[in-house]
Amino acid sequence: MMRTELRSLCSALLLLALAASPARADDPSAAAWRTLDHLRGALIAAGPTRAEFSQTYVPAGFSSGETERGSMALSLPDCLRWDYTEPYPKSFLLCGDTAHYWNGEDHTGRRYEVDREKEPGLDLLMLSLDTLRRRYRASEEAVGDASVRVTLEPVDDAGTLAEASLLVSADGAQLSGVTYRDREGNLTRFALAAPRPFDPDGVFAPPADVRWQE
């Protein structure tokens, strides 16, 4: 269960950590890559931030699904943490090549190493923008006057990711939503509140009172 949830989560949201590189003027998807580049730069410049989120998982063939809520802590380019509060408390932490998942109520958790070359979507954390361009098609469309939607699609059918889209402010400085669809048709939607700076002391380290299984 941990690997499935964490893979889906990271495939959608570690798109934030795209490596910066200038967009080619003759590339029809240049606007989308520039937006992602600008977003990542803004998130790194902001330092550690926290934001409330809601996550809705809609299984293939259904029009609605279960919603969970919690808070996200982000410290690019290295760490991402999700603390779910409703309806089932649990936490995820990914820093470097190590992922942790735990339930604070029963003080048990799982820990494992992440191979970013093999985990679907995790290549978005570590590869250059030129390499990403070879693996994904990017497009951008306006959503009202204040936002744009950037969509990424793999150029081949390897992995589970079918499509991921990010809802970004028109100035490219803030992420307000992410949608992830896998090849089975399952859909995961994240709605993010405005981020705020916070003191990250201890947040991006796994808790010491948890019994870890490798």
Major pleated sheet: 13 strands, mixed
CATH topology group: outer membrane lipoprotein receptor (LolB), chain A
Broad structural category: alpha+beta
What would you report as the Rg, rounded to the nearest angstrom? 17 Å
What is the total domain count? 1
Mean pLDDT: 82
Counting copies of identical and different chains, the oligomeric state is single chain
Number of contiguous helices: 4
> Count the strands?
13
Note poorly predicted spans: 17-25
The CATH class label is: Mainly Beta
Helix content: 10-25%
CATH architecture: Clam
Order of helices and strands: HHEEEEEEHHEEEEEEE
- The CATH superfamily label reads Lipoprotein localisation LolA/LolB/LppX
In brief:
The chain is α+β, with helices and mostly antiparallel strands and 214 residues long.
Please tell me about this protein's structure:
- The protein has 214 residues and is of the alpha+beta class.
- The chain has a single domain, classed as Lipoprotein localisation LolA/LolB/LppX (outer membrane lipoprotein receptor (LolB), chain A).
- The protein is built from four helices and 13 strands.
- Strands 1, 2, 3, 4, 5, 6, 7, 8, 9, 10, 11, 12 and 13 form a 13-stranded mixed sheet that branches.
- β1 and β2 form a beta hairpin.
- The radius of gyration is 17 Å and the shape is globular.
- The two termini are 14 Å apart.
- About 4% of the residues have low confidence.
